[in-house]
Write a structure and sequence with these properties.
Blueprint lengths: L7 E5 L4 H9 L6 E4 L5 H11 L2 E5 L10 H4 L3 E4 L2 E6 L2 E4 L5 E6 L8 H4 L2 E5 L4 H16 L1 H34 L8 H36 L2 H16 L11 H14 L6 H21 L4 H18 L3 H44 L6 H52 L3 H9 L19 H10 L15 H7 L2 H8 L12 H4 L2 H11 L4 H13 L11 H7 L6 E5 L6 H10 L5 E5 L5 H14 L2 E5 L8 H18 L9 E6 L2 H5 L7
Parallel strand pairs: 1-7, 1-8, 2-3, 3-7, 9-12, 10-11, 11-12
Antiparallel strand pairs: 4-5, 5-6
Helix pairs in contact: 5-6, 5-8, 5-9, 6-7, 8-10, 8-11, 9-10, 11-20, 12-13, 14-19, 15-19, 19-20, 23-24
Length: about 675
Amino acid sequence: MLDFGRRWPLFIDPQGQANKWIRSMEEERGLISIKLSDADYMRTLENALQFGKPVLLENVGESLDASLEPLLLKQTFKQGGALCIKLGDATVEYNKEFSFYITTKMRNPHYAPELCTKVSLLNMMITPDGLEDQLLGVIVGKERPDLAEEKNQLIIAGAANKKQLKEIEDQILKVLSSSEGNILEDEGAVKILSASKVLSDEISEKQKVADETEAAIDETRAGYRPLAKHSSIMFFCVVDLANIGDMYQYSLQWFTDLFIRGIDDAELSVDVPTRLKNITSHFTFFLYVNVCRSLFEKDKLLYAFLIATKILLADDGGAGAEEVEKVRAKVAEEEAAAREKIRLGEEALDKLRDAIAAERANPEGGSDDEGERLRELEEELEEDKKAHKDVVAAVEEEVDAMRRRVAVAEEDHAKREAMKIDGGELRFFLTGGISTGENAITNPAPEWLSDKAWGELLRSRDLPGMRAKNGPKGDLVADVIADPSRWKVLYDSTEPQSVAFPEPWHEQLAQLQRMIVLRAFRPDKVVPAITDYVSDVMGRRYVEPLPFDLGACFEDSSPGVPLVFVLSAGSDPMANLLTFAASRNNTRVEAVSLGQGQGPTAIRLIEQAMREGFWVILQNCHLAASFMAELEQVCEIKIKQKVKKLSEVDPEAAAAADAEEDSESEGDGEGDGE
């Protein structure tokens, strides 16, 4: 597409994958990156056109500058013998080495048809499978760097082998095409062909060994895939938060950095399954805590519910059943080895008993030496019997522990099976189904059951889980029609989410199915029911209030990633920030209240802080929405580059910004989710 396409590419790139790839690919050619918000972007583009440099136009919206149209359409013309193009009011010489790339961070942009015909639209949004493979590489690189290095070497060797084989093929074709007469009579050609055959066989043999080694490595890597899959699900839970509010934008780089920290901080274990379980548990909660810092209180439970349901939807039960079988097989193998210890011990005791019996049965001799020998054997037998008894007790204890492992694995699997949810049921719980007008069946208890609630119950009967598995025939709706009074207990209860359903429905319905029924009878108690559900699936800590920890926020930030405080009216974190700065022995904190004409002052202060190592607080960011683009440039270019290049920069130099909660500040919420 890039090499042979007639139009310049526009990448839909919310995770920055295309941006990173383009920068890597065009680095040697001196890639120039620009934004439409840059004051001199047109002058930069003109120079790049003249000198044949690649240009990356980043973070465009749903429309482009009209002056770029001749460039998009490649409307070149000859002037004075040179190839030229009109760009704005200027005529610029067009170098054929020029390349143009456009990227947008928007997840689902709506481009006008006339723009779509001028560019090649390429969707580079990462897929769950693609992210899973990326995260698998990160995990293996952290946990088994030897495997990661070996696989990389095999890939390089494989590419070299293919290149050599291609060269051999080209050499053979050249010999065949240039040979005159009978090729068998051409001694030089025969030698070349023979040598090529030997070399080709050697390379093929090397590649065969490499393929076998790579297959073994991939099998080991596959053991880490469940964690990669789980973490991929976690990322897309975070991505889905953008559907709640535009401010909830999180980058893939931010997520990957958190993932690496989660691996580093998780509890260690030599047992790989235990280690992966530790990482999964630690990272999931670590991510939850970090994301919740940037969520409004009303959205935190929704995020926890999203995590719980996404995990359960992704669990098809197959991996769990396979895991149980692996535990059973391993335990059976270990138990057999333990039983073998007992058998060998009993064999040794039997041999000792036979030796004693032989000594006693020998009537000849009777010397002191022979009597001493018999006593030694008897003492040895007594000692060995005691030792064997200890071995048997230890083995039985080991076997009990092994069987408990199987029981725990089976219990976990059974719990996962019981928690499994259906996508259709989840959609119904979230939407209540689609109403088709009047209810087909008359409400059996209009005095306490509303028509809206009855309509939801009627629609729920289409869900397979709402039918009786045994006992009374029919479905839950039929049960309500037959005896509404049994269900009025649920309606009258002060805590219906905790009340047992009429039998047999409490046992037959899964927790989410009971929540569907509760939604119809008592919609006011859905939130407490969701809280209980999240607690049961994820653990109590996912529904308990998280205290605000400024120190933890600071530790998770960096000089190139500012902290943004989204405030409600009347709140001011200034006192807390000053106290925290003092606790870190940072005595200099400078604040700028943004407003008209304060942008240059803020930029100068940030640049000074970068040199001298103090903190800058930008207040009232919502009053300077137009300045946010310039601040973004400072964060992305000046701060990050200087932090990387200048070792003398104080690592505690940071910029902190606070913004009051309004529509403009929410619109400027893109970034790394800090």
